[in-house]
């Protein structure tokens, strides 16, 4: 829908799933203001934007598909783990409510920091032999 005509996604990247997830990235509740578009401006998630979402894409132009072997591409997600051990296994804060208001931006960074607000994608896209 949002992909320009003549361009295509690499299937192995699409199969990785979402790269922005309030339920997996504990930093987002601290990174965003208390009332934001994702939590319905504080009214609750059912009023806000959806999460998780796939923000990262790899597009290949149709003419380049002969030179690139999209079927042999490999991909993996990275930066999807917290920076410090103290945050591993810790559930993210809820998107609204008292617990969020009390902990918002007040916990030590070791308990929530991720490398980014969304996960990255590493892709290897080989060339086909041009004989």
Short summary:
This protein is α+β, with helices and mostly antiparallel strands.
Please provide a written account of the structure.
The chain has 131 residues and is of the alpha+beta class. 11% of the residues lie in helices and 12% in strands. The strands form 2 sheets. A two-stranded antiparallel sheet has the order 1-2. The longest helix has 6 residues, at 98-103. The model has no long low-confidence stretch (mean pLDDT 84).
Which properties best describe this structure?
alpha+beta; two-stranded antiparallel sheet; 131 residues; two-stranded antiparallel ribbon; 11% helix
* Relative strand content: 5-15%
Number of helices: 3
Strands, total number: 4
Average pLDDT across residues? 84
Ordered list of secondary-structure elements with their pairings:
Elements: E1 7-9, H1 11-14, H2 28-31, E2 59-61, E3 74-78, H3 98-103, E4 120-124
Antiparallel strand pairs: 1-2, 3-4
């Amino acid at each position: 829908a949002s992909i320009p005509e003549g361009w295509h996604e690499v299937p192995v990247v699409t199969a990785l799933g979402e790269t922005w997830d309030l339920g997996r990235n504990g930093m987002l509740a601290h990174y965003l203001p208390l009332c934001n578009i994702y939590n319905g401006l504080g009214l609750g998630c059912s009023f806000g934007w959806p999460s998780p979402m796939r923000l990262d894409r790899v597009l290949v132009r149709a003419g380049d598909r002969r030179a690139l072997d999209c079927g042999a591409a490999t991909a993996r997600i990275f930066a999807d783990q917290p920076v410090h051990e103290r945050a591993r296994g810790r559930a993210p804060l809820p998107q609204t409510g008292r617990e969020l208001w009390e902990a918002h931006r007040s916990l030590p960074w070791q308990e929530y920091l991720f490398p980014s607000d969304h996960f990255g994608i590493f892709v290897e896209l080989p060339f086909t032999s041009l004989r």
